[in-house]
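Retry 2 of 3 after timeout on previous attempt. Resubmitting structure tokens to design endpoint.
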């Protein structure tokens, strides 16, 4: 019983003593809150800037200046189906993409850049 009474007295007295000794003012709390918020936002902006600029030891998402594969144009044919006009090493390829595979439809002749619709109609032999 004595230990129970002692522990209750200690638990009640400890917060009261802590409140007397370390009660920060409202202004001090607000300043700490603002400083913490500024620090977190600063770190977030720094990480954002680094992700946009790119780090030398990380690969760039777009590949960089030496890209050899370029998607010239894309047309959706429905859910999970599309046609892609892709340029690889100066040669244009027409690819069909489905839900489970990608197939080469045709290799296009090198000529002046043309409209995708006209090129597609020429390759499949239908008038537009």
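Retry 2 succeeded. Sequence:
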């Amino acid at each position: 019983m004595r230990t129970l009474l002692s522990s209750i007295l200690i638990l009640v007295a400890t917060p009261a003593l802590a409140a007397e000794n370390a009660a920060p003012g409202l202004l001090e709390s607000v300043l700490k809150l603002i400083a913490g918020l500024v620090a977190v936002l600063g770190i977030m902006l720094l990480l954002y800037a680094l992700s946009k600029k790119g780090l030398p030891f990380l690969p760039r998402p777009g590949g960089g200046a030496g890209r050899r594969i370029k998607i010239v144009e894309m047309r959706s044919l429905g859910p999970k189906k599309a046609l892609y006009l892709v340029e690889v090493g100066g040669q244009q390829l027409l690819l069909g993409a489905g839900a489970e595979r990608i197939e080469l439809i045709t290799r296009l002749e090198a000529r002046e850049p043309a409209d995708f619709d006209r090129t597609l109609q020429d390759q499949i032999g239908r008038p537009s």
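Attempt log closed. The mean pLDDT is 77.
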